[in-house]
Specification:
It contains seven helices and five strands; from the N terminus they run αααβαββββααα. It is an alpha/beta fold. A hairpin with a 4-residue loop joins strand 3 and strand 4. The chain is extended.
Length: about 220
């Protein structure tokens, strides 16, 4: 049996191989990262199928371990890159963020991201989603204030955009049907047997069937 220490070393070795091949940092969006991870999970699922639902050989079972290491290494890489992005914010500067166009859902996500970065409210706990304000202000003391753009006009704030903290936020118009289709598509990948257009069509067919069953 492989010990935990050995397993961790295998993942670390794979991470070094990935860095040698792709460089660090990689400039992937969150959605590109989840696509890469989903592909690796699909390869792991295929390896398990080959090893345990047929005449699996010793080599087939060894491949399960290899693919599990790949999944773990990609997940670790995501953690590293996301942490790197959070550390890119210069904590020696005061920032202001325009939130006037954000929905309640986006405001909530922004607050969660700021909390993860170590920021807290200047005066007690609040919810960004419920604020009647168009601007957030981040201080070098890691505190969050809010108000209108003119409230703090006499201070020298660096401008920070929402995308600096939340790259490519998920569009609100995504429906339950889209979500079901995404789940179905993740189970189909990787697949070289069908064109992408057919995979997308089949994913939405699965989604429609799920919605039909759900509404019974």
């Amino acid at each position: 049996m492989v010990s935990q220490e050995q397993a961790v070393e295998m993942v670390k070795s794979e991470r070094l191989r990935q860095n040698d091949k792709w460089g660090f940092p990689q400039h992937n969006t969150p959605f590109e990262w989840i696509s890469i991870l989903t592909e690796e999970v699909g390869e792991l699922a295929q390896a398990v199928n080959d090893a345990y639902f047929g005449e699996g050989s010793v080599e087939d079972r060894a491949k399960v371990i290899d693919e599990a290491v790949h999944v773990s290494a990609v997940a670790l890489s995501i953690v590293e890159h996301m942490q790197e992005e959070k550390n890119m914010l210069d904590k020696t500067k005061d920032y202001k963020i325009d939130i006037s166009t954000l929905s309640m859902v986006e405001r909530t996500r922004l607050q969660e991201e700021l909390f993860e970065m170590g920021y807290g409210w200047h005066c007690g706990g609040r919810k960004v989603a419920m604020l009647d304000a168009d601007t957030l202000f981040l201080s070098t003391e890691m505190k969050i204030s809010f108000g209108s753009k003119k409230d703090f006009s006499r201070y020298d704030y660096s401008i920070l955009t929402v995308s600096d903290i939340m790259p490519q936020p998920m569009p609100e118009e995504r429906t339950l049907r889209d979500w079901f289709a995404g789940l179905a598509l993740s189970g189909m990948l990787p697949s070289d047997s069908e064109p992408l257009e057919l995979l997308a069509r089949d994913a939405y067919r699965y989604a429609d069937a799920m919605l039909k069953e759900r509404n019974k």
